[in-house]
Design goal:
By secondary structure, this protein is of the alpha/beta class. It has two domains: about 200 residues, 3-Layer(aba) Sandwich (Rossmann fold), CATH 3.40.50; about 70 residues. Helices cover about 35% and strands about 15% of the residues. The protein contains ten helices and twelve strands. The strands form two sheets. An eight-stranded mixed beta sheet has the order 3-4-2-1-5-6-7-8, with helices on both faces. The chain has a four-stranded parallel beta sheet with strand order 11-10-9-12, with helices on one face. Helix 2 runs parallel beside helix 3 and helix 5 packs across helix 6. It starts with 5 loop residues before the first strand and ends in a 6-residue tail after the last strand.
């Protein structure tokens, strides 16, 4: 019989609401773990959402427990640049919450997911307390996390003062060798290479575990269409540079001039620049978080679905 584990998940966002595929994937894994009989607790940032998230209408094993008690350095549009005292308050709050949960929940393993703009000192503290660690890396936070963490950013800019602060407060002011702390699961070899080349980390224990596609959100087509190829491209997801959208747009110059393009997702890129270069060949349709379901429906009616993520 499989041993039942207490698993603590720490992540920036967790459904609902959720900003992107990283959070969706985390929620799906938590539901799967719960169905296998494990006890799962999710720690994520503060929000106005309910503290318990249902695992879905077909879930009969209860719900995944979610505590939205951590403060992040992200305001949904940019990373916060807090003065020292405010960043100190954030760190003290997060450390108190984390240590309290570790003491009461007593997890067998702690899994860190999306830690961009989160207190990376939580990793340091958890490792120092001897808990086994797993890291699921779905974006480049191993490259930008030290900057997005306003506390660590201040400490890196003031190394002499940081040493004194750590001595007096006990708060971590620098990152240990993250690669040596646990097992790393990367969504792609590209993401792992960037963490090594840009982040400067080395990973003695690492695996590439592709996230795949949800058969619920993207069910396979049961009918084979006899329609001719019509050069229709559909982009599903957020419109942002790291998702590889520029690769797809540049590819349009190699396609017939009448190739239409439709994007279903939010944009945080200067769309006007792209539109100016390829006028009348790209139409942006921002939609709600249900764009995943929209994409799956459109996929059965359109010639090609594309998402050449630069993280793949």
């Amino acid at each position: 019989m499989e041993k039942q584990l207490r698993i603590l998940i720490v992540t920036l966002d967790y459904s609902p609401p959720v900003l992107g595929g990283y959070g969706v994937m985390c929620a799906q894994v938590c539901i799967w773990l719960k169905r296998r009989g494990h006890e799962v607790l999710v720690l994520t940032r503060l929000s106005q959402e309910p503290v318990v998230v249902s695992a879905g209408p077909d879930e009969d094993e209860g719900a995944v427990s979610v505590r939205r008690i951590l403060r992040s350095y992200w305001d949904r549009s940019a990373c916060l640049d807090l003065p020292f005292q405010e960043a100190l308050a954030v760190e003290q709050h997060n450390q108190a919450q984390m240590q309290g949960v570790l003491a009461t929940f007593r997890p067998h393993v702690v899994a860190f997911w999306h830690m961009g703009a989160m207190s990376l000192g939580l990793i340091t503290t958890t490792a120092r307390l001897g808990f086994p660690l797993v890291f699921v890396i779905g974006d480049d936070w191993l490259c930008y996390g030290g900057w997005a963490d306003a506390w660590l950013r201040w400490c890196n800019e003031h190394p002499e003062q940081a040493a004194v602060v750590e001595q007096h407060t006990g708060l971590p002011t620098r990152l240990p060798d993250l690669g040596a702390l646990g097992i790393f699961c990367f969504v792609s070899a590209w993401t792992k290479r960037r963490a090594e080349q840009i982040g400067g980390w080395h990973f003695p224990r690492a695996e590439i575990i592709f996230p795949g596609l949800s058969p619920t959100e993207f069910p396979p087509s049961v009918e084979v269409s006899d329609r001719p190829w019509r050069w229709r491209l559909l982009w599903v997801g957020r419109v942002s540079e790291e998702k590889g959208i520029e690769t797809a747009i540049h590819a349009l110059s190699l396609l017939p001039t009448d190739t239409p393009w439709r994007s279903s997702g939010r944009s945080n890129m200067p769309i006007a620049l792209v539109w100016k270069r390829w006028p009348q060949r790209w139409v942006l349709h921002p939609v709600s978080p249900s764009h995943w379901r929209l994409g799956s429906r459109c996929a059965n009616a359109i010639s090609k679905v594309t998402s050449p993520s630069s993280q793949a």
